[in-house]
Design goal:
Elements (H helix, E strand, L loop, with lengths): L1 H27 L8 H12 L5 H8 L3 H13 L3 E6 L2 E9 L1 H25 L4 H26 L1
Antiparallel strand pairs: 1-2
Helix pairs in contact: 2-4, 2-5, 3-4
């Protein structure tokens, strides 16, 4: 019986992830930016970080500097960000949003707020005890996935 429940949990999580992916695609289909999720998160971090450069973005986004360099080059080409050097430090390259990039950032913030409001309403339909069980399950699942990711890095 326990094995059957574990299989059902796996199936329901897989179904949830698939539906979440479809929902995200559907909710973004009318946006004409042609940006990946990593590009959108890079834009978000450029706006939020103080003096964003490749190293800071890589550390914040848990990516390689090479990966960030590819993303920022694409964003510059698509005119969502610009790069610049500060006076007195001609070596380090920093980034800022263009007006087009700011539009993406503001929409991303609005989307996150709407999603949070929508989901908080759903979460409130559970009792406090149910919420604690879900939270414990998610914390343990996240820890398990983090451990599996670390094994892949080794």
């Amino acid at each position: 019986m326990k094995k059957i429940i574990e299989e059902l949990i796996f199936e329901k999580i897989s179904e949830f992830l698939e539906k979440a992916e479809v929902y995200n695609h559907m909710s973004n289909k009318n946006k004409s930016w042609d940006l990946s999720l990593s590009e959108i998160h890079c834009i978000d971090n450029i706006e939020k970080l103080e003096s964003p450069n490749v190293t800071l973005l890589a550390n914040t986004m848990k990516m390689t500097r090479g990966g960030i360099t590819k993303i920022t080059r694409k964003l510059i080409k698509k005119e969502f960000i610009t790069s610049f050097k500060e006076e007195g430090n001609k070596k380090e390259v920093y980034f800022r949003l263009t007006s087009k990039g700011m539009e993406v950032y503001l929409d991303h913030e609005k989307t996150h707020k709407a999603a949070k409001d929508r989901e908080m309403g759903f979460y409130s339909t559970f009792t406090g005890e149910e919420q604690k069980i879900v939270l414990k399950f998610l914390e343990r699942s996240n820890n398990h996935l983090q451990n599996e990711m670390e094994k892949l890095r080794d």
